[in-house]
Amino acid sequence: MALRSGLRALPGTELAGREWEVRLLADRARAAAVGAGQAVLLRGPAGIGKTKLLAAALDELDGIAATVLTVACPDSGVAAYEAVRALFEPLQPAGAAAADLLTGSARLALPALVPALGEGQGSADTYSVMHGLHWLTAGLAARGLVVLALDDVQWCDETSLRWLGFLLRRAEDLPLLVLMTQRTGPDEPVPEVLGEIGAALSCLTVDLAPLSPDAVADVLESAFGAAPDPVFAARVLDLTGGNPFLLDRVVSRVRDEGTPGAERVALLERIGREVVARPLLDRLPEGAFAVARAIAVLSGEDLETIAALAGTQPGPASGAVRALRAGELLAPDRLDYAHDLIRTAVLDSVPPAELARLRERAAVLLNDRGRPAEEVAVHLLLLDSVPQPWMVNVLRDAAVSAEGRGAPSAAARYLTRALRADEDDVAVLVHLSRVQGQLDPASSLWHLERVLGLVTDPRRRVPVVMQYTMISLAAQNSQRAYALGEEALDALVAAGGPDPSPADRALRMLLESALLLSGLDEKSGVPRVSARLRDVTPPPGDTAEERQLLGMLSSLGTLQGRPAAEVADQASRVLLIGDVAPGGWAVLGAVLSLYLGDHGEPALTAINELLNHAQSRGEAWTYALGASTRALMHEFTGNLAEGLSDAQYSFDVVTQERWAPGVSMPQAALGAMLVRQGDPVRAEEVLDTVTRPRLSEFTLEYHWFLMARARARAAQGDVEGALTVLRTCGDSLRGSGIGNPVLAPWWYDSAELLAGLGRVAEGVAVLDEVEPAVRRWGTTRALGMLETGRGVLADGDAAIERLSAAADVLAGSPAKLELAKAEYLLGRRLLRRGDTEGARERLRRSIDLSVLSRDKQQLGLALPALTEAGGRMRSGTDSPADALSGSERRVAERAATGATNREIAESLFLTQRTVEVHLTSVYRKLGIKGRADLAEALRTW
Fold it and tell me: Where are the beta strands (DSSP E) in 468-553?
């Protein structure tokens, strides 16, 4: 049995002239039922019959749809996710129908469905809530076709509309039909997101035309039991313009006046002036008219509240309701008008000043009755006057509620209205900046600039500067954030004096952390922050503030190339006590220091915690960027299979969610992995998709991007092109004061390429320049890479000695890829000297390492060299699993653990259809029949 909620058909004559549209909707429903998500947008002017057509179509779908959820969006203003809540009302947690639906990722939908759950929980991630609603819908769709019907969608709250767009982009594999009606006209709102939905490939837009003359005649014949006089029917058509709502009202009035015929045409002139509500309202007693106005302002409320707004008692109000229903103005089953045209006519009859007083009184009534703040706030938004103090409090509470449910746009509207009471209200400005930071980071900073102009106390400025710094990272405004941080720190130091209190010391550390965060974001800030904080002693890490600063100082030390043991010790203390948020910048700074310092295990543990935290909260953005970071970490430790999985996944998500223009890490990581997979052409194609503005200004992303680009070009034989990119990387690092030799080892790649070109002196000069930095950093990886570079540039026995030493050094490090290369280069030199046995031994070592690492690029070099040395592999080097793409591998690994398709899709932010496609490809590539054989196949191969 289908669930139904919200939408009601209008009373009146039967539906006529819409047979084609009803068949169309039924056809779309049948197409959707087989798992091809569809949407239809029915558009037309007021009264054209959109609601009646929608109701008739839903009746036709009773035998097709398993679930039908409907909502009529009111034009009186609604809170965030109001339409979503009305749609899913039958599935609220208290209902038995929801018991098995709000599980897994679907639980993330709860802040949208139950507003109270979001209160006091801070800001909910918008993507997370929408992700949860998607999986709630997917759970329903598992039972059969789901129909979501939204009437008057032009009045739908923006957050619900954005979720509909989110859902439709993922509906290709769902048995889902979304039906929407939209009122069109010069004065009707057209939300931008509704335009995006209508333009989607899965959405069919149908513009409803007026009824034809034959359809009008059919309506008249059905209403009066006889064919209408042609003159009368033509006049009715002229009078109503074929508008079904006006036609219904004409039919209703003519019934009261007698049988229609040519002699009744004159009657139509009078009726024509009364088919909309105003003349009928004018005949109402004053008390009844007051009730009519109250219903127009508080549509759908209970009789007691309507009576209070009208200034009367429930008894007289009940009589007025009966009179309004007798005139067919009200719906028969609720305190709302039979059509929005009638409601509009009522509101138009009220003078503007009086209507404003009515709306304000309505807000007072709802507030005094303890209604949720957002219910009150939607009425306050309709007022033009400056908010009173109590109104400001309500608007602020409503903003907190909306933010807690992942609706920052609604929160911003409430706070913007609250600001009209006092444009210098610091608390409101700070809150408004925070929610706008999720929507438009650049504009949100304007509010904080204003706050900093108002707040002079250096201690009160600290949290404002911290917030400014965090938002600036997304707004690419780090230089301004750094300047403000310096000003705030100087003022705080001056206020605290030479012997600051513990509280002031904690504030200083927060500001120093902010300086590091903003200063290290762009490479031009590295020298500045290095000079500013050169005398800061790393704290012991006993407090959260100390660990925050310690994590950022370890990042600075890593970029500077200070001894790896020193920065790794600092980073380890950051992670010692788990009171720093998993996604905090201190943790990410510590991860950078640890993995570049070859402390891979604690670094992976920390990044895994970050990813698990993001996954559990449905934060796809954090998860995708964290996965691209982990991909680079896997490459660093020689685990290219996992690295490819993470990189491909990250790239797929940012592409799917249209985030790619603002990022470069996923593309750089995938490009790097594809080069190692022996596919440099595709690597270049992926890197060519990077369009991030000002990429060359960023500290980490730019140099990682350049390394991937240089390696892709070298692998395609464009050695000079690769060297040009590597020199650009080296110049950029040098000019930015970044001295870490393994962050982007341009010198290591340059040495081999220059050796191949016979430009030995140039290569030696490169290594001479970087050697002090390598020895200062001091890891066995860096030292082994330097020795490899020296060996590849040397000749004869000296080269063999250097490369042999390099292999010995690298064997004691996690640098599997670099060791495989050193063994390969050594094998080539031994072969050149005529030591075929020694060459075969070294080349087999290189091949073994490359097989373990899944380094197809290195294998492609070592295998032919082994053949040339007269050797052959004792076992195969190819595995069917090597043919899996990164995304296929990640899906297969989760399926092998017993995860269902839905569980895999939820955890990876994919659609179930995408998971099915990947698994089908996996089965074919591995030569297995299905899921039961997957674990063994992956384990064997």
Answer: none
Say which DSSP state 539 is in.
P
How many Å separate Cα 843 from the centre of its chain?
Answer: 47
Residue 511 dihedral angles phi and psi, to the nearest 5°? -65, -40
What pLDDT digit, counting tens, does each position of 218-260 carry? 888 887 777 877 877 887 787 777 878 777 777 777 776 655 6
pLDDT of residue 839: 94
User: With b meaning 16 or more CB within 10 Å and e meaning fewer, what string describes 210-232?
Assistant: bbeeebbbbbbeebbeeebbeeb
Q: What's residue 337's pLDDT?
A: 82
Per-residue pLDDT, 912: 79
Q: Give CA–CA dist 340/281, Å, rounded.
A: 15
Q: How big, in percent rounded to 5, are the helix, strand and coil portions of the chain? A: 65, 5, 30
Q: In terms of C-beta distances under 8 Å and separation of at least 24 residues, what long-range contacts does 120-123 make, across chains too?
A: 120/404, 121/404, 122/403, 122/404, 123/403, 123/404, 123/406, 123/408, 123/434, 123/435, 123/438
- Contact between 487 and 457 under an 8 Å Cβ cutoff? The reply is no
Q: At what angle do helices 408-419 and 426-436 cross, to 10 degrees?
A: 150
CB contact at 8 A, 271 and 280: no
- The closest alpha carbon to 892, from 911, 862, 864, 915, belongs to 915
Rounded alpha-carbon distances, angstroms, from residue 781 to 21, 535, 606, 742, 813: 70, 30, 22, 8, 6
Q: What is the C-alpha to C-alpha distance for residues 272 and 279, in angstroms, rounded to an integer?
A: 11
Q: Find out whether 296 and 343 touch, Cβ atoms under 8 Å.
A: yes
Residue 563 CA from chain centroid, whole number: 39
User: E strand or H helix at 360, and its extent?
Assistant: helix 352-368
Give the C-alpha separation, 555 to 814, whole Å: 21
Based on the number of CB atoms within 10 Å of its own CB, is 267 exposed (0-12), middle (13-18) or buried (19 or more)?
middle
The pLDDT, as a whole number, for residue 871 is 86
Helix (H, G, I), strand (E, B) or coil at 192: helix
Residues of the chain falling short of pLDDT 70: 1-14, 76-78, 92-99, 115-123, 256-284, 577-583, 873-883, 939-941
217 and 233 in contact (C-beta within 8 Å)?
A: yes
Contacts of 798-802 spanning 24+ positions with Cβ under 8 A: 799/829, 800/826, 800/829, 800/830, 800/833
Check if the beta carbon of residue 590 is closer than 8 Å to that of residue 606: yes
Please give the pLDDT value at position 680. Answer: 96
Instruction: Specify the DSSP class assigned to residue 229.
Output: P
Paired with 67 in beta bridges are 146
Rg, the chain, Cα only: 35
CA quadruple 366, 367, 369, 374: dihedral sign: positive
Tokens of 570: 């600092």
- Three-state SS for 570-621 is HHHHHCCCCCCCCCCHHHHHHHHHHHHCCCHHHHHHHHHHHHHHHHHCCCHH
- Using the structure block, give the residue that is written with the tokens 């009606």: 181
Please state the separation of Cα 512 from the chain's center in Å.
31
Cα 79 from Cα 475, distance rounded (Å): 28
End-to-end, the C-alpha distance of the chain in Å comes to 49
Whole-number Å distance between alpha carbons of 337 and 135: 35
Rounded-to-integer distance, Cα 146 and Cα 178, Å? 8
Contact assessment for residue 635 and residue 141, using Cβ atoms and an 8 Å cutoff: no
Nearest to 98, CA basis, from 133, 64, 130: 133
Cα(819)–Cα(802) distance, integer angstroms: 13
Owner of token pair 């801070």? 122
- Can you tell me the distance from the alpha carbon of 371 to that of 390, in angstroms, rounded to the nearest whole number? 14
Q: Which 3 state secondary structure label does DSSP give 203?
A: strand
Tokens of 309: 């707004």
Tokens encoding 902: 């839905």
Specify burial of residue 352 (Cβ count, 10 A radius: 0-12, 13-18, 19+). Answer: exposed
Task: Using DSSP, state whether 9 is helix, strand or coil.
Answer: coil
- What was the pLDDT predicted at 65? 86
CA distance 316 to 296: 17
